[in-house]
Structures are given as C-alpha cells and as structure tokens.
Amino acid sequence: MNIVAIIPARGGSKGIPEKNIKNFCGKPLIVWTIETALKNKRLDRVIVSTDDEKIARIAQRHGADAPFMQPVELAQSSSRMEQVFAYALHWLKENENYSVDVIVWLQPTSPLRQNRHINEAMKLFLKEKCDAVISVSELPASHNPYWIYKEPKTGYKSLFNAAGQNIKNIPARRQLLPKYYFMNNIVFVMRAKNLLGTHPTLFGKTQHLYKMSDFYDADINTPDEWLITEMKFRKLKSKVSR
C-alpha cells in the first residue's frame, strides 16, 4: 500500500494571521507536524496541500512535498475536506501516475502530536481493516450531553431530557455519566477509495475510534488558545528531555 500523509494548510486565517507559518516555540507551526510525519516509517510520502506559495516553500525547505497548489475554491474556510483530498488524489494520479491507497490526515494546528499517535492509529487501522480510524478524546463531564441544557419556551431542559428522558433520571455525579468522545484532529486515517466514489466521504462505511489523552488536543483559533498550546508544548518537551 502507498500510505501518504496529507497536511492541508491554507493561507487564509482570520483569527491568527498566517497561522500555519507563525513562529511556534522556535519554528513555523506547520514544521512541527512535518517533522513528526517525516520520522514515521509507515508513511511513504508527506505532502502539504496549500494555496499559499510561502507555505509551500517552507514545507519543501523542511522536507515535505508540495507538488501542486490548491485551487482557490478549495482553500476557503467553508471548503469541504473531501474535495481537498479528492483533488490531491486526482492530481497525483494524473500528473505523477502515483496511486494512493491510504491517507493519513494531519492537521498543522496539532503541534502536540507524537509519532506514536500516528503509529497507534495506523496499527488499529490495519488490524481492524476498516475504512477510517478517527482519533478522539473523552469529553469532560462539564461537556457531557447529559449535562448540557437548552432553553425552550417551557423552561430549561437538558439535551437528553429534550430527547424524551425524564430529567430526574439524569446522572447527578460525574462517575455515573456515560462516556462520550470528540474528534481531536490529531490523526485521521482513511482509505483513498472513500473519496473516489459517487458520494465522497472521509468516513467510509466502517470506522474505529483511536482513543487518546485530551492533553494532546490543540484548538488554535485565537491568540489565547495559541498561548495555552505553547505552554502545553513546552511542558511536553521538558518531560521528553528529562
């Protein structure tokens, strides 16, 4: 199988200008993802898909491929990732006669990602022979659907009460809550064929969850989130260097 990491990195960013190449703990943000991917022996290629020439130059300077420029319509905040990946697959086939079997989607805004996360997700993907493996973290109790409320006309109701459950039966203790998970965007493994059919999809027909610690989750959309992620990154690096 040809297993290819694709790092989508558009040039536009409203919350943090030039976010993907902004200096993050000594390197452009995207470089941390590129370097982690290049260390991984399971990956045959590391490709940055971007509409920005500056991002492409930085990616190539640090060892990644940037063989094409994304069309402008695929580099909008509203663009669907299915289209971004499908374009990459078609371009590689038409211009290099290179067929991709498996895509490992790596977000450049996840600098806390470790090489083992890619390996463990790939190991699960190969073991289960599924169409997609999605990295997730457990929702904290404060975000559990049982403890989320909305305000209809008749008064506050929890999400599950609104679905027909009696609010008296909703667990009042954290230990009794059922577990729920959120996509943390650390790693997403998918079969290329998911994207090549009549109805392209990231998920295919069968999926498995790769469960991991929420410490590595990073949601960098504001300057405050950037600073929080830098603090977590430095803490992580200090542990590794000991």
Keywords:
6 helices; globular; six-stranded mixed beta sheet; two-stranded antiparallel ribbon; alpha/beta
Task: Describe the protein in words.
The chain has 242 residues and is an alpha/beta fold. It starts with a strand and ends with a helix. The longest helix has 19 residues, at 223-241. It has helices spanning 29-39, 53-61, 81-96, 115-128, 159-162, 223-241, and strands at 3-8, 23-24, 27-28, 45-49, 102-105, 132-138, 149-150, 157-158, 181-191, 207-211. Helices cover 30% and strands 19% of the residues. The strands form three sheets. The chain has a six-stranded mixed β-sheet, sandwiched between helices. Strands 2-3 form a two-stranded antiparallel sheet.
What is shown here, in short?
By secondary structure, this protein is of the alpha/beta class.
Strand residue percentage: 15-25%
Radius of gyration: 20 Å
Helix-and-strand structural type = alpha/beta
The CATH superfamily title of the largest domain: Spore Coat Polysaccharide Biosynthesis Protein SpsA, Chain A
Average pLDDT figure:
93
Helix fraction by DSSP (H/I, runs of at least 4): 25-40%
Largest sheet: 6 strands, mixed
Distance between the termini: 37 Å
Describe the global form. Answer: globular
| Total individual domains | 2
Q: Any idea of the CATH class of the largest domain?
A: Alpha Beta
Order of neighbouring strands in the sheet with most strands: 4-1-5-9-6-10
Instruction: Give start-end ranges of low-pLDDT stretches.
Output: none
CATH fold category name of the largest domain:
Spore Coat Polysaccharide Biosynthesis Protein SpsA, Chain A
Secondary-structure element series: EEEHEHHEHEEEHEEH
CATH architecture of the largest domain: Alpha-Beta Complex
Number of strands: 10
